[in-house]
Design brief:
The chain contains eleven helices and seven strands. It is an alpha/beta fold. It has one domain (2-243): P-loop containing nucleotide triphosphate hydrolases (Rossmann fold).
Length: 259
């Protein structure tokens, strides 16, 4: 199972949308996908119309015994796609989480590795135990960045966080930037994209996700997708190809781990 975390400390940059659209593109390829909603606000759960019930969400992994609790609550939302929903209790985890629990999520996900090809973790915008746990559990980190000037500043905060978590977990995190909400008609959008690509040459995915309202239609409908993939859906499909082609496959990761 390949585990991809989607994180950025800035809100509204397309983290949840990226998580859902990637799940759609992966499910379309016949893969079994596990969605993990680590945001106490639960936008991902709300998108897929999953109730956020205390004691039945992903927070069980941090607070209780994973075997017994959270995994039973895994819910199928669409063909091949399941979700571990957020719950209001996740906010408590964020505030009172025990640092030693940072690997609990990784351990829980490992126990599910045989059931899914892909796990996608939607992170909250705050730096707390849930985000650190996701960074500890992921094979790759995707950082959606809106192509507008102020978003670049937010990105610097996120890269600082990645470096800090790398030190505290003694683990290297491979991450990629996903330019989102791009409007090529504006000069500011084009310049921000250029700046992003030149400043983060090694990390930037060469593609981009354009502004596309069909993603909002999918959220409104409570589905992974609304109709055929629009321009953004196609972009996310290209991102899956890129991740696969960049050798970011479960098989490759197993070899990496064994080496
Ligand atoms: N490519 C896109 N085109 C149009 N709207 C988008 C796109 N990506 C995200 N959005 C919208 O932008 C808002 C923020 O996206 P969201 O995924 O919730 O961000 P985050 O999870 O980072 O807070 C939402 O209203 C979402 O529908
Ligand atoms: Mg979100």
């Amino acid at each position: 199972m390949r585990t991809i975390a989607v994180a950025n400390q800035k809100g509204g940059v397309g983290k949840t949308t990226t998580t859902v659209a990637l799940a759609a593109a992966m499910a379309e390829r016949g893969r079994r996908v596990l969605l993990v909603d680590l945001d106490p606000q639960g936008s991902l759960s709300a998108w897929l119309r999953q109730p956020r019930t205390e004691g039945r969400g992903v927070e069980q992994l941090f607070l209780g015994e994973p075997e017994e609790a959270a995994w039973r609550e895994r819910l199928d939302v669409e063909a091949g796609v399941s979700i571990l929903p957020s719950s209001p209790a996740l906010a408590g985890v964020e505030r009172h989480g025990v640092p030693g629990r940072a690997r609990a999520l990784a351990a829980g996900l490992a126990s599910l590795a045989g059931q899914f090809e892909e796990a996608l973790i939607d992170c909250p915008p705050s730096l707390g135990l849930p985000m650190v746990s996701a960074l500890a559990a992921c094979d790759r980190l995707l950082v959606p960045v809106q192509t507008e000037f102020l978003a670049l500043e937010g990105l610097e905060r996120m890269t600082g966080t990645v470096a800090m978590v790398e030190r505290s977990l003694a683990r290297k995190i491979t991450w990629h930037i996903v330019p989102t909400l791009h409007d090529p008609r504006t000069g500011a959008g084009r310049r921000s994209l250029e700046l992003l690509r030149s400043r983060y040459e090694a990390q930037a995915w060469p593609g981009l996700v354009p502004v596309d309202t069909s993603l909002r239609d999918a959220a409104e409908a409570g589905r992974l997708y609304a109709g055929a993939p629009g321009r953004a859906g196609q972009a996310y499909s290209g991102l899956v190809d890129w991740l696969d082609g960049a050798g970011v496959t479960g098989k490759h990761l197993a070899q990496e781990a064994a080496a």
